[in-house]
Amino acid sequence: MKTLFVICGGASSSSSSTFAVLLAAFIIASCFLFQINQALIIQTKNNFTAPALFAFGDSYLDTGNNNNLPTVGKCNFPPYGKDFPGGIPTGRFCNGKISSDFIAEELGIKELLPAFLDPTLGPQDLLTGVCFASSGAGFDPITNNLTSVLSLPDQLKLFMEYKEKLKMIAGEERTRTIISESLYILSSGTNDFINTYFSTPFRKFKYDIPSYVDFILGLASSFIQELYNMGARRIIILDIPPIGCLPSSRTIAGGKERNCAEKYNQAALVYNSKLPSLIDSLHKKLPQSKIVFVDIYKPVLDIIQNPNSFGFDEVRNGCCGTGNLEVAILCNPLVPVTCPDDSKNLFWDSIHPTENGCRVLTTMIIKQHINGGF
Q: In Å, how far are 123, 165, 168, 184 from 24, measured between CA atoms?
């Protein structure tokens, strides 16, 4: 899911060589023009139509953009991806598909949402959307620098490059239609609290929680306005889940009993409580926008408090190793997968949901928000 649990910036210059390699492929993109009309008239399973899906933010949506970055925020190695088609570790922080894939699939757009920096990306992939999210990213510049990942401004630069490549395939007019009628989803903020505010001294001595939330929301507002200026109109913003209940948070700040770390959850609630006001103000500034706030805090907490009602047996630990701390490089080929049936676990590693966890949460989001939100 970003972060659904967000912990899982480098400069966008790392992508330039990839784009050079892809340029030749884009020149022959006329072979794929027949797909454009299909991309423009997709009818989703929930009576919501969109030509494409675009994902921004952190690891809850990242489908592999970090694979070739010099960062520890990557997972393109086993046991990640063990249940992905072909058993391939793609850079998704999961045993299989993640929320961005399920959203694309549930909306009838395509089965998988590829990473824009995937070197195998073809022209036909661009017509129905790509992922720009980067695991470990946040709104706070310090958050991105801590792990050398793609910042939100970096992701906007990639989106600009995407638009130029799309014009080569679809032309100016159809590109404008795809950009304006597509769905955009943003997951960010969790890493700012988990990785930066609570884990380093760089912000906590200058900001209390409410003032840090205001600082983060100011950066979020700037990002959304920039995205709007680049043509986006239909935007979904995910709030922050109960980050104190992540297995790693329980271990680090939950005491001997590994209870949910309440100070983490309270920070998330302060952020979430102010997000609707931000969206209201953006609607006034951006008159053609349709921005939808999606609450994932409550659905995730509902699963954690009533796991059996959602088909889960384990919600305190991940499947990788002890399940208490292992994530990224700590969850590697030498670490055993300890879940007899990972579909019964909410968490895959100590931060991110299993494929089934992502599937259940995505279904809840689609039913509650997207179908009626636009």
A: 10, 11, 11, 28
Task: Bin 87: left if φ > 0, else alpha if -120 < ψ < 50, else beta.
Answer: left
Burial of 40 from C-beta contacts in 10 A (0-12 / 13-18 / 19+): middle
Query: Is 352 annotated as catalytic?
Result: yes
pLDDT at 16 over 70: no
Whether residue 86 is predicted with pLDDT greater than 50 in this model: the reply is: yes
DSSP 3-state of 344: helix
Residue 288 has pLDDT above 70, yes or no: yes
Residue tagged active-site, from 62, 140, 349, 350: 349
The answer to whether 132 and 66 have CB atoms below 8 angstroms apart is no
Domains identified in the chain and CATH numbers: 12-373 (3.40.50.1110)
Which of 12, 14, 15, 59 is catalytic? The answer is 59
pLDDT tier, 131 (very low <50, low <70, confident <90, very high otherwise): very high
30 is an active site residue: no
Quick one: average pLDDT of 219-232? 98
Q: How far is CA 216 from the centre of its chain?
A: 17
CB 214 within 8 A of CB 284: no
DSSP 3-state of 49: strand
Q: Out of 99, 125, 239, 352, pick the active-site residue.
A: 352
Distance of alpha carbon 322 from its chain centroid, rounded? 25
Report whether the peptide linkage leading into residue 79 is cis, meaning its omega lies within 30 degrees of zero: yes
- Cα 225-212-201 angle, rounded to 5 deg: 125
E strand or H helix at 77:
none
C-alpha dihedral over 6, 320, 86, 108, to 10 degrees?
Answer: -30
